[in-house]
Amino acid sequence: MLKIKNLTCGYESGFFLKDITFDVGDGELMGIIGPNGSGKSTLLRAIGRVLKPRRGEILLKGKEIGRMKFRELARRISVVSQSPEQIMLNFTVKEYVLLGRTPYRKRFQILESKTDDRIVAEAMSLTDVAYLAERGFGELSGGEKQRAIIARALAQEPELLLLDEPTTHLDIGHQVEILDLVKKLNREKNLTVIVVLHDLNLASLYCNHLLLLKEGKIHSMGSPEEILTYSVIEEVYKTPVVVEKSPVSFRPLICLVPGKEMGRDT
Predict the structure, then answer these.
(1) Of 8, 24, 25, nearest in space to 16 by CA
(2) pLDDT in tens, 3-33
(3) How does 186-216 read in b/e, with b if 16+ C-beta sit within 10 Å?
(4) What is the pTM of this model?
(5) From CA 59, how far away is CA 62, in angstroms rounded?
(6) Residue in 5, 18, 22, 9 with CA at minimum distance from that of residue 56
(7) Is the domain defined by 2-223 classed in CATH 3.30.70.1230?
């Protein structure tokens, strides 16, 4: 699905991703993890063509994304950013989700087509926001907003869904709700997903593969069992942890160690 070769990109402030190379298979759910400032969101912006590479290639099914027209790119890649877009507060949920059909609108088309209506209805049903169709976007809870944003992304009919910390500012119930939805879409729609996550336990529970970044470079890639070991976490995050096996998922479960327990001041 996605192939990244020797990618280097960054900002005028001086931060750069350096020599990033990896593949994402069709139908994969891959998590990007790493400490603050390691380049997680920067990498996602490069894949979504928000940030132009200084060097290297980003290929979607063999085609360089930099050579795609924006309309084609928007039909193939959907992005869910960290925070709900505040400019949409005067839209109803259905009007908001309909924005996902913009890449398919013909020139001078004003009204949505029957195809648009069908796809939007399906996206809202999949994300369980159909009952909110006539509600104002600004009236929704944090979890409802995130589901509506994902519905809009699905209305684009993407091949690849990018999510940048979709559980930020959500309580644990809504975190599970959103990531259960992402996992369902990955399994039932065979949708390829790349998600940036801060919470290592959520990454362990929901992702098939993990890419761990450190200081703008790939530290390691592999399964949660391969990446989320105490030695790797302590090396990258500079904090002691205990890693057990979850009694529910049988995947790595990371337990934090308070400073006082290690003989350090808190």
Answers:
(1) 8
(2) 999 999 888 776 788 899 999 999 999 999 9
(3) beeeebbbbbbbebbbbbbbbbebbbbbbeb
(4) 0.88
(5) 5
(6) 5
(7) no
